From TrEMBL:
This is DNA polymerase IV. The active site is at E148. Keywords: Cytoplasm, DNA damage, DNA repair, DNA replication, DNA-binding, DNA-directed DNA polymerase, Magnesium, Metal-binding, Mutator protein, Nucleotidyltransferase, Transferase. Belongs to the DNA polymerase type-Y family. The record marks Y59 as: Substrate discrimination. The gene is dinB. Residues 425-445 are annotated as: Disordered. Its main location: cytoplasm. Poorly processive, error-prone DNA polymerase involved in untargeted mutagenesis. Copies undamaged DNA at stalled replication forks, which arise in vivo from mismatched or misaligned primer ends. These misaligned primers can be extended by PolIV. Exhibits no 3'-5' exonuclease (proofreading) activity. May be involved in translesional synthesis, in conjunction with the beta clamp from PolIII. It is found in: Cytoplasm. The keyword Metal-binding applies. Binds 2 magnesium ions per subunit.
């Protein structure tokens, strides 16, 4: 998408080497100190302060770091043949493998790929190492996921003795040297364009989008570059003759809002590079969920209900570990032809109890067990709040308190003897794949 965009070169004394960080006094293509061709130049290079960091093919990069024999091989991180791709390395991506692609399609595109089941505990640990390095640069770090975040570097020049651009390049270099994976960085004046810039030249990218060039740059991009414009909405815009952001720039705000409502307001501002959102370091999780893809399609309640129970226990464990509770229970199902069904029910009070999550999910599931075969089942809670407001005494359901006490006793036994020490009747004898695994750390959510 960005291949045809010319690189703007600034005044000769503005550049620096991304490998040794030496300032460049001329327009040479290689660093005068270390010979590296990775020179950063831009007219606004030293005025911009908002960054987006994204680890390159994170899960696959960690596995390649830990197993050097995989260095030159296509690697796919994901489930079995019935699962989906979590991450593919860049060698596999060249062959057409993409994240969220069904595994059987990924192996058709790249049959020689090495498939590795995800090791979330390891990825969370490495992700925390990267985040700790981010937080050493600035307290204004807003994580988006385990492997990406926004950073506001304004006001840090006096602390580090370098402008934000050099601090960012130094961070990328240090992550590669100390942790053994690579990152791509985008630098701009707003969140939207910092995120766009970080996707510019992956892997090991370092790209800058300045304020002076923003409108012209965006005019040449497809509308799908804008957050919230997915396939369905892009099709709506195309029916209206709009494919490029430049076409949006020629429409006034009132017209866009008349056509597309609140989304029209977003189109108006982002198409012009206007994004007033600030970096929030304490971005709250919006939901906590767990899901699984089956090895074979399942339709029978006898097969689905034990899985629902195990996943409910996993969600409950995450909530309790994070000190959270949720008011809305959400059931997720994917049919054998990849059609997604989501059903939800709002509770009177927030909950963090596995039993209550399960019983609510069971009520929703029963309406969907009509013979349809499913390849995926998930359960989660949203509308999160603190656990101090969770599960007050139920005056209607006399057995609710007993079930809550029993669950507390089970939690205590599992904490002492392991997650598989105590099972409910729903999961007993169903095999280890049905049992809830140890809960991941809250950051994973």
């Amino acid at each position: 998408m960005f291949a045809a965009i010319p690189v703007t070169v600034n005044a000769p004394d503005h550049g620096f080497c991304r490998d040794c960080l030496a300032l460049q006094s001329g327009e040479t293509r290689r660093c005068g100190q270390c010979g590296s061709p990775r020179i950063a130049r831009h007219p606004e290079l030293y005025r911009l302060q908002l960054a987006h960091i994204d680890c390159d093919a994170f899960y696959a990069a960690v596995e390649k770091r830990d197993n050097p024999a995989l260095k030159d091989k296509p690697v796919i991180i994901g489930g079995g043949k019935r699962g989906v791709v979590s991450t593919a390395c860049y060698i596999a991506r060249i062959k057409g493998v993409r994240s969220a692609m069904p595994m059987f399609k990924a192996l058709e595109a790249c049959p020689e790929a090495v498939v590795i089941p995800p090791d979330m505990e390891k990825y969370v640990r490495v992700g925390r190492e990267v985040r700790a390095m981010m937080q050493a640069l600035t307290p204004l770090v807003e994580p988006l996921s385990i492997d990406e975040a926004f950073l506001d570097l304004s006001g840090t020049e006096r602390l580090h003795g370098r402008p934000p651009a050099l601090v960012l390049a130094g961070f990328a270099r240090d992550v590669e040297r100390e942790i053994g994976i690579t990152v791509s960085a985008g630098l701009s004046y707003c969140k939207f364009l910092a995120k766009v810039a970080s996707d510019f030249r992956k892997p090991r990218g370092f790209s800058v989008i300045g304020e002076a060039e923003a409108v012209g740059f965006l005019a040449e991009q497809p509308v799908t570059l804008i957050w919230g414009v997915g396939k369905a909405f892009a099709a709506t815009l195309e029916r209206d003759g709009i494919r490029m952001i430049g076409q949006l720039q020629r429409l006034d705000r009132a017209e866009l809002m008349r056509r597309y409502g609140s989304m029209g307001d977003r189109l108006y501002h982002l198409s012009r590079g206007q994004d007033e959102r600030v970096v929030h370091p304490d971005r709250d999780a919006k939901s906590v969920s767990a899901e699984t893809t089956f090895d074979t399609d399942l339709a029978s309640p006898a097969d689905l209900v034990p899985v629902l129970r195990a996943l409910s226990e996993k969600v409950s464990a995450r909530l309790k570990k994070s000190g959270l509770a949720g008011r809305t229970v959400v059931l997720k199902l994917k049919t054998q032809d990849f059609k997604l069904r989501t059903r939800n029910r709002q509770l009177g009070d927030p909950t963090r109890l596995a039993d209550r999550i399960f019983q609510t999910g069971l009520h929703l599931l029963r309406k969907e067990t009509d013979g349809t075969k499913y390849r995926l089942l998930g359960i989660g809670v949203s509308d999160l709040t603190g656990s101090d407001r969770a599960d007050p005494p139920d005056l209607v359901d006399a057995g609710a308190r007993k079930r809550a006490l029993a669950e507390g006793a089970i939690d205590s036994l599992r904490e002492k003897f392991g997650r598989t020490a105590v099972e409910t009747g729903y999961t007993f004898g169903r095999g280890r794949k049905t049992l809830p695994p140890d809960p991941p750390e809250p950051d994973e959510d």
